[in-house]
Amino acid sequence: xxxxxxxxxxxxxxxxxAGDRNPWLIAVIVSIATFMLVLxxxxxxxxxxxxxxxxxxxxxxxxxVITTYLVANAVIIPISGWLADVIGxxxxxxxxxxxxxxxxxxxxxxxxxxxxxxxxxxxxxGGGGMAPSEQAILADTFPPEKRAQAFALYGVAVIVAPTVGxxxxxxxxxxxxxxxxxxxxxPIGAVSLALVHWLVVEPPVLQQExxxxxxxxxxxxxxxxxxxxxALGCLEVVLDRGEIDxxxxxxxxxxxxxxxxxxxxxxxxxxxTRQDPIVHVGLLCRRQFxxxxxxxxxxxxxLFGSTQxxxxxxxxxxxxxxxxxxxxxxxxxxxxxxxxxxxxxxxxRIQPKYTMAIATAVLGVAMLYxxxxxVPDASFNYFAWIRALQMIALPxxxxxxxxxxxxxxxPELTNQASALINVARNxxxxxxxxxxxxxxxxxxxxxxxxxxxxxFPASPVYQNTLRNVTKHFAAQGASLADAxxxxxxxxxxxxxxxxxxxxxxxxxxxYAVLALGMIPLALLLRRVDLDAGGKxxxxx
Length: 540
Description:
Blueprint: H1 23-46, H2 48-54, H3 59-62, H4 64-76, H5 80-87, H6 89-108, H7 113-128, H8 130-141, H9 147-175, H10 180-183, H11 185-199, H12 204-215, H13 222-241, H14 251-272, H15 287-316, H16 322-347, H17 352-373, H18 380-391, H19 395-404, H20 414-452, H21 460-475, H22 480-523
Helix pairs in contact: 1-8, 1-9, 1-11, 4-7, 4-13, 5-6, 5-20, 6-7, 6-8, 6-11, 8-20, 9-15, 9-16, 9-19, 13-14, 13-20, 15-16, 15-19, 15-20, 15-22, 16-18, 16-19, 17-18, 17-19, 17-22, 20-22, 21-22
């Protein structure tokens, strides 16, 4: 179907999930579950060492709590559009919220690590279908000219929750128990389910489309499902476990990487030749959609990568508690909260290509500033400011991406488009975190080897430092021999700390290059008709 094709009669029917209610009420309702979902994704990272300690497991073993959840998400997200079409969007959404909520309850009661991992997988399957359904509901409920403001409201939950997560997770685990990071989802999920059941409508046109789809019998693309599950599931394992298991030196990682690559290679031609594909990959052949897909990959990488990176830096190098390191992220959340409505207004007045290009430039400059100004004695206020500076541009990326992604699409492809955009965000986040962790390890080793080159007995600088530090420890009551041993240890630890800090600076550079690299991508977007709510010109 092209832009000049005569619209199907069903396209003229209302697709809104609001019915005769205010659509903004529906936007608020679907944002409740979104906030719970995204909050849980970031909150669990903070609690890993507490989980490992209480279950007598190693930290390496406890990371499977995160990995399995991400794998389950990766499997379900790309097929969530198809599932919503077949099951019914409202019904599918409520099933996902219910699964997530019930699994959260059992995660909180898990007696051992194996049980927790099983229920995290179930939780991930439920959570994976929520965000695509919510975004499809918003895209159909609001007319094109109001979608930017609707996604701005929704974006408050999607972008601010990762900022609140580490703070709340730190506070809960420091003052109560890690079990509560899962149990708090239960009342939120119950409220969300009740509100969706009472207030969200399944439009008749969607019911008609579902009945037509099922009239000739349900045809399931099992091959496509298996291929995408293997491709994204195995890729998620590689990205999340690669650094822990020494990447391709590990047969485990190598095997999963090969399975993922082969599955991807077969998946795309298979889906492109299906009459009813389980994932509509043909959308990636459309210029506008393909570009925003790639930009969302980058946004996910920077957002999720930096959200994990900064607390990690503060807790390891600056010895902050989990709660205090989380508080350092809060100003970034407030900055995005203030900018989100402005971004919504800007999206209806400024060409998305220019908004995104400027936003990526600001994000890149903020990362460069962090790389240039990070020092060993940086204060809490510095980290709060740098986080706010880094995050202030993200609403001007998130809102245009989500409005352009649905512009000019056939209405029946809304669910599929939403699924792919969420694949981009989650996959980008996994890649961003993986690249950051790999770079931290490799660059820390590099910087340490360079620093150690200057630490040798004949070096005047080393001798002078050793003398002064020995005097310091001796003045505190240590014997001369003990003071010298302590001084040597202090010098070694200082070199290690400096190497670690330099590796974080290198990661800031990587994120800066990634952000700046998105500028030409954004400028490749076609101009859109702002009066028509961002609809792109029809292409034949």
